[in-house]
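[job 0412] stage=complex_fold ligand=S-adenosyl-L-homocysteine status=START
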Amino acid sequence: MRPTEDTYRHKGLRKKLVQGIQAKGITDDRVLDAILEVPRHFFLDSAFDEVAYEDRAFPIGEGQTISQPYTVAYQSQLLEIKPFMKVLEIGTGSAYQAVVLAEMGAMVYTIERQKKLFDSNDEFKFLKKYPTIKFFYRDGYEGLPTFAPFDRVIITAAAPYVPPKLIEQMKVGGMMVIPVGTGDIQQMKRITKLEGGALKEEVFDRFSFVPMLGGRES
Ligand code: SAH
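[job 0412] stage=complex_fold status=DONE, emitting structure tokens
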């Protein structure tokens, strides 16, 4: 069962979480405000109520995880989101990252390849508060050509390589934030599409994500 009550205690724990993330180097106020705003415990089973505001990843079923808040903040900061930007997310999972981006004013298109996770978000009432998030049951490697081009692309699973179709679906001046690597540890990269289609690549810290897999799973 999901919790539905956001108490003063939860709000207090969120404040502490934000202070912790700030101490680890996140400076974008809009990112910090969004983390402060979003009740992360709603995205987890009530069994996790006590620990939902620890800066850790947790299991959400189907072998998947809700990303660590620091990682969510880190990727969100690298994306340099401005209100009304069209953002493509690969790996909806718990939908926590999607809601953080929506809180920052983004129009979010999020893709999940596992049917059970997709369906569970369909039944998640809290998400009705965010009409700016559109959910898709697809293979993220394909992106969403119908809704392209996007201002921003975020991949929240470990990508073995940068998916070419997702580069194609970016606007000129657009940016992609993607953890790249085939082992346990990936390198966070930010790729900017320049005038004429050339790509600029910047390399950031190392993280550990669940793998980005091909195809859909029923
Ligand atoms: N953004 C999520 C993180 C979930 S973990 C959150 O905030 O909770 C990564 C998710 O990516 C998993 O749910 C996994 O099923 C999904 N995934 C992996 N490969 C994918 C692909 N090719 N297309 C879409 N989703 C994918």
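The mean pLDDT is 97.
[job 0412] exit 0
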